[in-house]
Every structure is written in C-alpha cells, then in structure tokens.
Amino acid sequence: MGRRILSAVLLLACAALGAQGRTWTPEKWFDKPRSPRIANYRIEATLDFEHKTLEGQETLSWRNAGTAPVREMPLHLYLNAFKGPESLFMKESGGHLRSDWIANPADPSAWGYCRLLSVRMEGQVLQGHFGEDETVYWLKLPRAVAPGETIRVDIAWENRYPRVYARSGWGGDFLMSGQWYPKVGVYQGDRWNCHAYHANTEFFSDFGVYDVALSLPNALGLAHTGTQTNFVTEVEKDPKRPLNVIWRLHAEDVHDFAWAVRPDANWRMPERFEYRGVQIFYYRSGRDLANFQRQRRAVENALRWSDEWFFKYPYPTLTVIDTPKAASGADGMEYPTLITAGSTPFDPFHLRVVPELVSVHEFGHQFFYGMLASNEFEEPWLDEGFTSWFTHKALERTYHALLGGRRFQVGTDFLEWAGYWRLPSEDPLTRFGFRTLGEQGYYVTAYAKPTLVLDQLEAMLGRPVMEEVMRAYTQEMAFKHPTRQDFRRIAERVSGRDLSAFWRDFVEGTEVLDYAIRSVKGRDVQEGGWLLTGDKPVFAPPQSAAPGRVGSITLERRGGIKVPITLWVRLENREEHRIIWDGQDRWVTYSFESPVAAAVLDPDGNYPMLKDRLHASYTQNPSRRGFHYWSQMVWGSLVGLLQGCGIG
C-alpha cells in the first residue's frame, strides 16, 4: 500500500510540476467550451476486479439540440452485445472479430452484460423497452422535452465484463473498460440516431464533460481518459471499502470515456514524457521493452504531423496502452485521449506495422472520430478511412516505407492497396458499415478504398491544395458531427473545382479504374507485288521500304471508370511521344513509324487508383534477376534474422 501511495504521489507531483506555466488545470482544461457539450456525465462506479463486475451510478445532463420535442430517450448498453449468442453483434460476427474470438462459450465468464437497475427523472421512475436488440434501451420520458431544454437523468446500473475478444473486457490480469456506461444516443433534427451495436460498426455520440470517480482495489494501476484530479497530497481511500482507493478523473469536450486496469509495476508508475505541450503516459507491457523507443517515436511524429497538417492537439494529456497478449482483442483501439497500441517481442526485419503503424493510426483517431465526431455506424470511412490516409502519409514522411531495403520497398499504403484490390467492386463508400459485405467488405469500404480515394483526390488537386482542403475540413468541423457532404462542400470551396464526377466515380460508385496495355506489335514495311500502273500488270518481288520497321500499341479499358489517360511511348528511333486517350471506348490502337521500345500508361502518376501498373507498362528488354541478385537477397535476409535473434 505504501509503495502504491508513493507512486501515486510522485506521478501527480510530476504532473503538477509539468503544468506550471500552462492555462489548463486537471479540473479545467479550456477557458471556453470547444464543443456544444450536449451530453455531460457525472459517474461514480466501483469495480470488483476479482469477479470482473462493476456497480455504477451516473447523472446524465442532456440538452435537446434538435428541432422538435422528444418524448423518448435511447441509451446504448453496449456490453449487452456480449450477453449471449443471439445479440446482433454475436450473430453478425459469429463470435469471431478482429483476429480474435470468443473462448469457451460454455463458460459464463466468457460473457458479459450491462443491466439497468433504475432510471429516474424529476423524481419519477422511468420505464422503457429494448430496441432492435438489447444494446439499445428506449426510455419513456415523463413529459416532452422542448428544443433547447436541458434535463437530468439519474441512472444506476451494473456490468459484468466479458472475456475480451472485441474491444472491451478482461484477459489475464488486464481489464479494458470501454463502452462501459449507459450512453445517450444522438438527437439530430427531429429524430434520434442510435443504432444497435453491430459487429462491423463502432460508435456515435455527443460531446460533453465527464467527471468520473472510480473505486478500485489499491493494487491496480489505472490508465484512463482525461486527467486525474485527486491524489495531489495523499491517496483518497474509499470509506466503504478499506482495500479500495478512489480515482477522480475529468475530461472536457470529449464524447466517450474509457479506462483500463492492471496489477503491474509498470502501470503503477507509467513512463511519462512531454512533447509539444502534451503529457504522454505510456503503460508498458513486459514484452515491449525492445520496441518502446520505436513506439514513442511513432506517437511523437503523429503528434507533430497532425499539428502541422491540421491543428494542434488541444487536450493536455494522451495515454498509450500496450495491451498484453492475453487481451489482444482490446488492442488497436481509440478513445478520447487514450489509445491501445500493442507491441511485438520479436521483429528482426523492423516491419513498421507494430508498433509504428498501429500507434500512428490510433493516434490519428484523436482527430478523425475523436474531435471530428462522424457517424461511425453510417459513414465509417470518415473516421477509419481518413485515419488510414493520415497514417499512410505520416509513415511515408517519417519512415518512407513499411519495409525498406536497398533492393525493394513496401509502400506505406500497401495494406490498403492490397485489401482494396481483393474486393474492389462490392460496396460504395456511402454504404452503412453494418450493411457491407461481411468483415472483408467493411475493411475495404472503411479503411482501404478511402485511403486510395484520398490519394486520388490529392493527385487530382495537387498536394498544396489537398493540404489546404484537409486543414480547412479539420478546423471547420472540429467538435462537430461532419458528414461526407461537409467534406465535399469544403473541398470544392477550397479547390475551386467541381467534384461531382469524382464523387460519382470514387465515392458513390463501385466501378474500378483499370487501364492496360493490351498488346505491342511491330512489322516490316514492304513494297512490291503486282503493279498495275502500265499497260499490263507487272510483278515485283516484295522488299523493304521506308521507313523500314513500324510499330503499334493497343490500349484497353478493363474497368468501368472512364477518364482521360496519358500514354508515354519511346520508339526504337529514340523519338518520344505523349498521347492523351479519352478512355471512352473499350480499346484503341496507335501506330508509329518505328517499333515501340518502351511504353507507360499514366507516367505522371495522376491515377493512384490505377489497378494494374504491371500491365500498364511495357519494355522490349524486361529486367532479369540473376544468381547474384537472388543470392544476395537470401543471404541478407538470413543475416538480418540471425542478428535479430542476437546471433552474429
């Protein structure tokens, strides 16, 4: 206990020293609200770590920001997705999601729930009913709540955490508490937006202020959203539970709150650094010792690029959790001011996926989903897709490649490129996340295709204009609920371009951009044969004639998207030609007065979404890899592996 108190005091003392000279305090972040603060929560909860249960009470202060009175209020009860096999989440996922699965369904500890105990408003007990499934509960309000009016609802509930396989729950000695409290839906215009918890969707909620008091066993280290407001001089004991301490936490202008606990020394005294005015806390796992500096560099570079490209990260704190292997289902997730980004204990080739790509991606969600709170149910590409594009750009600027060597490089958008071309034509970006063609379709629509679409938009507008578009979009839509129409409106205004054709082809359409060189031919020009110029036909044996040998090239449009495309050709006589084909027909043939030596479609890279660049280029003398090349590749890989093992 004494060691626990000392750790807490030192941690808060460091935070207090680091806060000198700043305008924020742990209890108050901003002089003026950054968001509308529609849904505000005051929560008190007690965790029974041994039995993985929680009892909680919350006061929800909610303002009707719509245009019509409301007589019902929906509450998300997300943990009911893990109540049993008949929830929408379980039926859609089949108990398998994100490379993880539910273990031993016959074991009660594999399942969990969120059970309402009581709901009161203005002294009255509220009744209600479940919606599409038990992950949404509709409260019947005692009276109509007018636009602009604020109400307070008192809610008592209890949780049982499932064994984690999808974001929230426990594994080993680790517990991730995400989507753990009853959370109100979003009222827009004259209707509620509050979908059930589907397998291929995430979340949507309003901004507010959170004040959370957690009673936890004193042996646990706590990672959390927001800042801690107590423990400044001494640990606050729970008077009702002698072995518990109370953590008081605060967050402003966020739309969710998450936390995690673990009885680990690294968690009781996490690594703390400051970068660009942000206090960053790293909750490390024993397996990440060799990769910690890599993760730290990735997080700091993500902070740097987002600051320079969008706007400065406004929150005072950021928490980075390295999830243990036993709870891998909670890895790679984002919450306001908190991300989970695991590590790998063995990486001899330094493939920059774990921890670099995961860390940068999850931090990117602080903007796309966090401060630009789009509807992840209905438009998942606005958070996952924009974040994947930011990840690709930040990794490219920092590392240049996911895997690089003297002989080859794996591009930072390789995973998205490969994923998209596995299933390119099934769903448009406008499809709701839970209506895509399975998990692979969701990945393509939410992650892969949007990354390439934004690359395509940048190629069309040019990098400087694209940077202005993204800066305007993020700054104008921060702390709001942006839609795809907001992005289009801002992009058209900043660029001065009509994007209707682009929108039709790449956002709303499912056709692909696929042009190829179908064939390259050459032939000898000859003259002779029967000549009919005199009184009677005369036969002359065929022989070579000027210009000697000629060539031709046939282009083919294999996809449904029709765009003008440039063909660059170099002939054997060393002439070079640039031809623009309008791309409307299925094929076209161009002839030249010399054989074609080399040709490339889209030589300027105007179409990053061009499907097959292998068949969009041609050369007479293809490169050949000899024995020395391949032996060097094999030997270099072997030596790198041995060095990664500590041998050699």
TrEMBL record:
CDD domains per the UniProt record, alphabetical: M1_APN_like
Signal peptide residue numbers: 1-21
Keywords assigned by UniProt, alphabetized: Signal
Residues covered by the Peptidase M1 membrane alanine aminopeptidase domain: 302-505
Name used for this protein in its record: Peptidase M1 membrane alanine aminopeptidase domain-containing protein
Family matches, as InterPro entries: M1_LTA4H, Peptidase_M1_dom, Peptidase_M4/M1_CTD_sf
Matching PANTHER family: LEUKOTRIENE A-4 HYDROLASE
Domain of life: Bacteria
